[in-house]
Specification:
Elements lengths: L5 E8 L4 E8 L4 E5 L6 H10 L3 E6 L11 H8 L2 E5 L9 E3 L4 E4 L2 E7 L8 E5 L2 E5 L17 H11 L8 E4 L9 E2 H7 L9 H9 L9 H9 L7 H6 L2 E4 L13 E4 L3 H4 L10 E2 L4 H9 L6 E4 L4 H12 L5 E4 L2 H7 L11
Parallel strand pairs: 3-4, 4-5, 5-6, 10-11, 13-17, 14-15, 14-16, 16-17
Antiparallel strand pairs: 1-2, 2-3, 7-8, 8-9, 9-10, 11-12
The structure holds fe (ii) ion (FE2).
Amino acid sequence: MDNRKLIFQQLFEAESSTFTYLLADRETREAVLIDSVLEKVDRDLKLIAELELNLKYVLDTHVHADHVTGAGLIRSRTGAKAAVARAANIACADVLLCEGDEIKFGEFALKVIETPGHTDSSLSFYIEGMVFTGDALLIRGCGRTDFQGGSAEKLFDSVTQKLWKLPAETIVYPAHDYKGFTASSIEVEQKNNPRLGGSKSKAEFIEIMSKLDLPYPKMIDRALPANQLCGLERTESEKQAGSIQMLSLENLSAAGSANSLLIDVRRPDEFVGELGHIAGAHLITLGPDLEKFLDTYDRSEPIVFVCRSGQRSMQAAQLAVQKGFESVGNLVGGMLRWNELKLATQRKTEQ
Ligand SMILES: [Fe+2]
């Protein structure tokens, strides 16, 4: 592999001290983004546009407790697929990752290494010479193991049996750093990591982790529920009224949504434009038309919204939930994704 062909950027979010990583194939321009932060989505998408990249995947090393992932928003804006560990049970994800899976972009591939312990479903990603360790291995530290199915025992095994087995010169890129470091290496951590390095035994590590006495993570109550929805948060009123089902194209026809009223909230010219519309979809444009319709329609009837990319339909779904609708779906990826999959479309307005 020729690393001159790999574009690599390390980005930082100061509030949660999170690193986001952008990797891309210089030739094909295909890209992946690891551990995005909701508040930095605009920064990341601007960079991706400036570098003229085509984002294929937005990955999370684990379900974060200290920040909300940008994955859902980035997916709705770019059509990139959201990928997380299968074991994390995130229903809205497009790709579920297991040990040995490969995430391909251009001629490159990130290899999935399951490294549970910080959480029960934490992953690391390896690409020649670099490993993205999430919170499994930090620079001179490691993630806590007292939440989200964490286990000091498992983390010790993950690090010593998997990460320490990588080539010694492999550069370690963690999900966070709180002291100003940006990268380390397997060799340096193996020697100097105060919790896991040197000749620390599993018993010593478990002892260290049991005595950390860390405060309750300040963002956890917001971050975990949001990250279960790929970072798309529910407002208080939505929580009271019901929830929005994030529907992939594959499950549009399943889960009872076949009986739902499908509402396309784009403008009339888009409805009959290049991307066409789904057969049976009703055109009710987001705005006063939709407001009026929702005010008069039966709130117990299931409805599903679609638009170009999934963003306006999300707004429509939020509006419907606020108005008391019980079963509301949003078609993730919208007509862009629908067309990408070459599913049948119509261009004429139905009467
Ligand atoms: Fe974490």
